[in-house]
Queue: 2 jobs
Job 1
Amino acid sequence: MYRLCFIVICMFTLLSAKTVYGEEIVVHKHLQQAIDGANDGDVLIIKQGVYKGPITIDKSIRFIAEPGVVIDGEGSEYVVVIRASHVHVEGMTIRQSGYGRGAGVFIKESSHVTLKNVRIEDTHYGVYVESGMHINIVNNVIQGRDVHFAQRGNGIHLLKTKHVAIRDNHISRVQDGIYLDWAKQTVMKKNEIIASRYAIHLMYAEGGIAKENVMTENINGIMMMMSKQFTIERNTIAKQLDYRGYGVLIYDSEHVVMHNNTLRHNNTALSLQNARQCEIRGNEFINNYRALHSLYENKDAIVVENQFLGNMEDALIQGAPIVFDDGEKGNYWDTYRFYDWNDDGIGDAPHRIRSMYSRLLQRWPSVQFYFQSPALALLDTTESFFAQAQAQGEDRFPLMDIPDRQNERKKWSWKLLLFGSILLLSSLTMLEYGRRKIK
Amino acid sequence: MKKIASLLFLCFLVACSGENAYEPKEINPDIDVCVVCNMGIAAEQYATEAILKDGTVYTFDDIGCMMEWMNQQNDDDIAKLYVRDVTNGEWVELEQAVYVYNATYWTPMSYGVVSFANEQNAKAYMEKEGQGQLWTYEQLKQHRWGFEQ
């Protein structure tokens, strides 16, 4: 009986419990005074209006704005400074930081900070985090100044951070959308980054993932330098069309996994430059000027089960050879011209990366005018017979169909076979029936 | 005839002087890319340049990239090497510049070495940053180049 009573009391306590915050304070003016007067755990509700910055949050408070709240830095270095842990900032517009090192939001040596539904405009850096951990930057809009990218700051800049999550943000017109400098275990998911220099720039980053982001119309999509143990998965990286534009450039980095991304309409979709132990698998390279570029020695890098469709140039290998298969499967190349007589889904002859066209393109870029012309087809075919020794690389197990479609084709082939058999059987039955009737 | 000859001689002199001057070229952030790391040069005041005797100009985004590039070059091909004073962007020859080093300094590739036209600017920078070591070119040459944290 006692045990039952105890359980009932516990359940009642649990059901009636709710998150306990401190006092709820409604703020109409003088933000800094309100913060100074608040205690840890208080919730500050900011009423509509334009407030003068800068402000410094040095307490564990929730700072929630009603619609129409603007904090204007009026050119001061930072607009909102956070120097405490367990801080939640939500819902306002932050604008007009200073130049140089100025930022809309500056978070220093803090942990468990959330920045949500905030609009940051006309600032040098959008959000600058220095030595922070467990920071969430979610669903914000960051729009840089309308000046040349060399004069802009980064959208979100992380310096020596750990466990930062950057999700669902829209970043445009900044120098680099998200800049990671000695940042560890950063998660970047479902962000949209456009019209900037580099969408994501990693310098000495370690661990972490970039997943389902959309990066378009920047100079580079992902610029990875001296970083390691990083995953790039299911991103859409398109229209990096600047003459020096790259979808993804991996420079002097190791243990990078790049899976199931779509890279289309880029100048160069992927460049590997001293990328060690990297796995490039299951990506779509579609309609790029050049799909893959390999420079220096990319030790133990593997490029497998990718699709190369409609690229002006599939690959340019300028350093050591690169591995295009895992011993069983290679990649799908729409330029592959041989057959699969034994129907195992793998082409009967290796796919050689054509070199003559690449060399011509490098020397005379205007040669691209002849792309897919009969003259080039003739050159390719001639080269495939004679230039084995000059091939830049080869895929020993080229796929005969796009990896996803392969299973689908098998599934459909069974259905078609069944349908055909039924049709044949019914025709024969009808013929036999007709023949007997005539008799 | 004399006039034409003098004009030709003048043109010859101008052409010769232009070729041998090996002046640094202005950085264009829309075009210039570091030849070592491929990064676009956005922080122009940290850019460096190497000019070969045939007039080819190579740009670098960080002095560390240029030093790495120099290790793989034939010194006889190099005509001039330039760095910039980060405070005002003035071009200075590599050997005549003054350097300040600290592992925590921000530079585009985090080599932590910053260049100046004179000691006064270098000291002012160190004072502003609160740390750093003053180096001459000889000390710079002894440095073991690597990325700093």
Job 2
Amino acid sequence: MNWTKLIFYIFLLAVIVLGAFFYRWVFSNLLYAMVFSYILDPFVSWFERRHFPRWLSVLSVYAFIIGIAAWFTSRYIPDLVMQGNYLFDWFKSGQQLNGEYIVNLPFVHGIYVFLADLDAQIPGLALAPELVEILDNASAFLASIPKLLMDNYQKIFSTMSVIATIPLLSFFMLKDKHKLRKGAMEFSTNRYFELCVIILRKIDSTVGTFLRAILFEVIAVGIMASIAFSIVGISNPVLIGATAGVANIIPYFGPFMGGALAALSVVIDGNPLIMVVYAALAMYIVQLVDNNIVYPLVVGGTISMHPLLVLLTVIAGGWYGGIIWMLISVPLVYITYSLVKVLYTNLRDFRII
Amino acid sequence: MLKQIGKWLLTLLHNPNKYAGLRKYSIFKNLNSFELYLLNNHLHLRNYKSGDMLFDKDYPLEVIFFIEKGEILVSGKVNPKQDIVLKKHQFLGMMDMFYENIRSSSAKALSDVKVLAISRYDLMDLINKNPHTGVKILTAVCQSFSHYIFDLADEFQASLASKNIDPTPLDENAYFKTVLVPNSTESDSNPKEK
């Protein structure tokens, strides 16, 4: 036993553990910055191939994104703010938005009348007052949302500051991409060098392509759904379309969420119920275009995961970390599965296992 | 005048002599400083001790090696003598890269070796995304392969002469039957089948 070596490895392990403990708060920031870098990397490389130094390429891409964001802000944010304010006011009106008020909305009133008839025929059932009580509780919860936002403004502010640091971290990741890669490869031993190169390449192609495809799809579905909902005449089409675009990350079930939100909007507004069918039809057409043109074009195939596995993954994600994890769990599982598959295949090819 | 200023500004952005050493490899001899900079982004410097294996026969082919220092023994079917020693500024893996995805030979360091390694996919990506650079690299690769084929032909002539076989008229299988693989069968001795 070489004691010097052993002591060095123990020392190294201690340094790694201490480092991980010290930097544990910024791991999530690093992860977000990596995702951001993966999405932007092809654009940075495009500038680099046109004789821009790497740092200038990154700044050029940032300037381009800021330009797009500024245009989007001036063009669409007023609409989004207006639609957001409408919902905010609706939430705030929780005081008058009680169960008695909701049961008078056209669609809900039909259900209330049906239940009241049942109560009249079956003595002691009392389903109609139960419905009013449930709606009372639901509206009280909705009314508390703005208060929750106000109470948690510090957390929201810290989240915003985390978001602000991501472009800065990404700048260095993008600028020094090749140096970081070379540095990482230096840790591999000669025996595993070629395997590490393969894994790194696969991570690049799988993660990079997948993330860029998802982003492109979110934008495409968001725009298409907004247009489709405004054609059909749903109120707040931009907001609901944007939400439908984000929800679309979850395969199979995401599109239903967009449609359900549009249907809810129809019910709340008291529009004719046939509008729900129009909204569903609009969402179906958007999905048709997405599944047959957008997704095959940007990814070259769909996620080859069984619907049951997708459902279980979404439920598990929801239990683990709420809505955010519901959105990211399927891509995360798919990427992990792809990488494990590549690792297993190559470990066998290199006769390591 | 403006062109000169532009060129001067480019030299500020990319030092023209920083990667000039890469031009010593025959396939990169025609690349300009910017193209060498792009190439260098994908190169990994590796050190091997004498006796270390760089790769084994039948392993997946991912990386092409460019020798910066030392000698490497390559054993495999690409060379008629079976074993060949490669030295500074030579490269290995290129011939397999254009043939199949697994190594047809093994490589072992004969002395302490320093090599530059590049993923074949990174190299092809560089070629595809920079067609002008790609043409330069592929032209140089073709030249390198031509030299190799003519060297083989010279060896072939010399081998026939040493065995007192009349090289004209040329029997296309003679070399493979008599010099390269004397015990091979008819079916696997025809080079065109490869």
